[in-house]
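Final report, results section. Input specification for complex C-07:
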Amino acid sequence: MAYWLIKSEPHKWSWDMQVAAGKKGTHWDGVRNHSAKLHLMAMELGDQAFFYHSNEGKEIAGIVEVSKKFYPDPSDESGKFGMVDFRAMKPLKTPVTLDAIKQESKLAKMVLVNNSRLSVQPVSEDEWKLICKMGGI
DNA sequence: GCCAACGTTGGC
DNA sequence: GCCAACGTTGGC
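Structure output:
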């Protein structure tokens, strides 16, 4: 079981919309970055990911689960990139903000802090557990 | 194959 | 709205 963090701008695709998509979830398309793509390809069914709101909110709103493994993205005419499907699992009771993450020294190594532009990132098990605790679950 | 120029992302 | 960081593009 691996853990991840995926980012979305809330006015484009928010946590609420992810929840509304229900059990079948939604495909995470539009990734056009090779590091992000490598992470997508490494994801297994059932892997969990934090759903992070960039720009507005700047907080982790909830947890999603991989419901379909990496497959080609039809919106990419070059055929190089792909996507996975995610479905909403549960919200954090208290959203964990970027501020809170920065103030926690144990999370200083998170990719979110050091490479804020990467849209799909790995999260270590320790980081995962700590953020879950901070989020009240 | 190098590197400058440009575009995009995302925090502030 | 600004700008730093990063990725990509394109001329050489």
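Chain A has a mean pLDDT of 94. Residues 7, 9, 54-55, 58, 98, 116-117, 119 of chain A lie near DNA strand B (CB under 10 Å from a C1'). This concludes the modelling results for the funded period.
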